[in-house]
TrEMBL record:
Gene3D superfamilies: Naphthalene 1,2-dioxygenase Alpha Subunit, Chain A, domain 1, Rieske [2Fe-2S] iron-sulphur domain. It comes from Streptomyces fuscichromogenes. Its cofactor is Fe cation. One of its GO terms (molecular function) is oxidoreductase activity, acting on paired donors, with incorporation or reduction of molecular oxygen. Keywords: 2Fe-2S, Iron, Iron-sulfur, Metal-binding, Oxidoreductase. Residues 53-164 form the Rieske domain. This is (2Fe-2S)-binding protein. SUPFAM superfamilies: Bet v1-like, ISP domain.
Length: 450
């Protein structure tokens, strides 16, 4: 048995296999069936999505007591409800009478009550029953208070988000987020708030859709406008550092960070391409700051350090929170943090691009792909409740910038290619794509638990 087999055996609990269909034989090859096989998908539903911590909503979606939002995953519906004490409860979205879904989408509980649209039964925001219409017609054993209470699942708040786990015996959230929680806290993940939030539905497995963002290897070919005029042959493939962590998490960032900016023009041009291409990570606010010190840069100056100093000074003057040492983070000038199983943070400066990807309509070959542009606002600025702008087609250039449209196109072509006769498995680079293998090994470990 090879060292890789030993590693996989430790991950799954059964050497090399773990009872998982189409298992990972090593970290370099992913069987194609993992992206479309119905049996594999059903195992994911049972052993992953029902038993893992997952981001259910951002706190800005439910800012006030009695605000609610629905979270759906693999046919299950939950209501995230802000409580009067500002805590959050996750309630299973089914009437205790005849299973009617109680709320859809997002909104506010009128009078602080959850009301069944079928027969008018009601519940308080904490899930306790407050009214049964025609109660005199029911046997006492049908109206026991504990039986009528809406069922809860575990919910915890971290990083400006509400996380849920359908498994009552799951380990604490913080343990599940190790070690990326510390990494994200170092760049003040809890300070980010929603600028905009959109969604696209892609004809691709949820895992395939997210693997594109676990590496920067695709940039020169997929996003040539970001390659600085270099061809694929000349673009430095080893410019990023890739780290695969326990629990399936991973991260990558520039090895040279801000030092790669050889001139103020390079900094501004790169920022403008990001701003125009996706309206996230680098914002017009940042470009304005950079333009403000364009003529102050002298030959030999450290452009990255000057940019960080200017951004920090602007933030402090505008009342925008700026944590101590933020500009020293290896993620300050860009990078990515993947939080298993399906959440991404792509920070830059005091902003972040974020993705959440999950199965769609009980079909292993379709996924919901949500995109957030996040930034840090002045502490005194009152922000409106965060609402999704809508679900837009993958080629809708009015609602998507060039960068995401380029990614969406590749993702669907990958899914189609998986069905090509003679293609058996993907082949991963040992460094640039190590996060993908790491995610799949962790997935096998989770699937082999039963």
């Amino acid at each position: 048995m090879t060292a890789i087999d030993d590693d996989l055996g430790a991950a799954t609990g059964v050497p090399g296999r773990g009872g998982v269909p189409f298992p990972m034989r090593d970290r370099l090859h992913v069987p194609r069936e993992r992206y479309f096989d119905r049996g594999f998908y059903e195992l994911e539903k049972r052993s992953l999505w029902s038993r893992t911590w997952q981001m259910a909503c951002r706190l800005e979606e439910i800012p006030q007591p009695h605000d609610f939002v629905e979270y759906e995953i693999c046919g299950r519906s939950l209501l995230l409800v802000r409580q009067p004490d500002r805590s959050v409860k996750a309630l299973h979205n089914a009437c205790r009478h005849r299973a009617t879904q109680l709320e859809k989408g997002a909104g506010r509980l009128a009078g602080g009550q959850i009301v069944c649209p079928f027969h008018g039964w009601r519940w308080n925001a904490d899930g306790t029953n407050s009214f049964v219409y025609g109660a005199s017609g029911f046997a006492p054993e049908c109206l026991r208070p504990d039986d009528l209470r809406l069922r809860e699942c575990r919910a915890e708040v971290w990083g400006g988000c509400v996380w849920i786990n359908l498994d009552p015996d799951a380990s604490p959230l913080r343990e599940a987020l190790h070690p990326v929680a510390d990494l994200l806290e170092s760049i003040a993940v809890g300070n980010w708030q929603v600028r905009w939030w959109k969604e696209v539905v892609l004809h691709a497995n949820w895992k395939l859709a997210q693997e594109a963002f676990m590496e920067g290897y695709h940039v020169p070919q997929t996003h040539p406008q970001l390659a600085g005029g270099l061809s694929v042959e000349d673009f430095p493939v080893d410019q990023n550092r890739y780290d695969a962590f326990d629990n399936g998490h991973s991260s990558f960032g520039r090895k040279l960070a801000g030092e790669r900016y050889t001139s103020i023009e390079t900094l501004i041009l790169g920022g403008q391409l990001l701003s125009d291409g996706q309206d996230a990570m680098t914002l017009e606010r940042d470009l304005t700051v950079f333009e403000g010190f364009r003529n102050k840069i002298q030959p030999g100056d450290d452009v990255g350090a000057a940019a960080a100093e200017a951004l920090r000074d602007h933030a402090k003057g505008a009342g925008i929170p700026w944590p101590e040492g933020l500009e020293d983070s290896p993620l300050f000038f860009g990078g990515e943090v993947f939080v298993f199983p399906n959440l991404f943070f792509l920070p830059q400066y005091n902003n972040c691009l974020s993705y959440r990807i999950r199965p769609h309509q009980d079909d292993p070959e379709w996924c919901r792909f949500e995109v957030w542009s996040l930034t840090t606002y002045p502490a005194t600025e009152l922000r409106p409740r965060a609402e999704q702008l809508g679900r837009f087609a993958k080629d809708d250039s009015e609602h998507w910038g060039l960068i995401p449209m380029q990614d969406f196109s590749n993702i669907e072509r990958q899914q189609a290619g998986l069905h090509t006769v003679g293609f058996e498995e993907t082949r991963l680079a040992t460094e640039w794509e190590n996060a993908i293998g790491n995610m799949h090994v962790e997935l096998d470990r989770r699937l082999a638990r039963d």
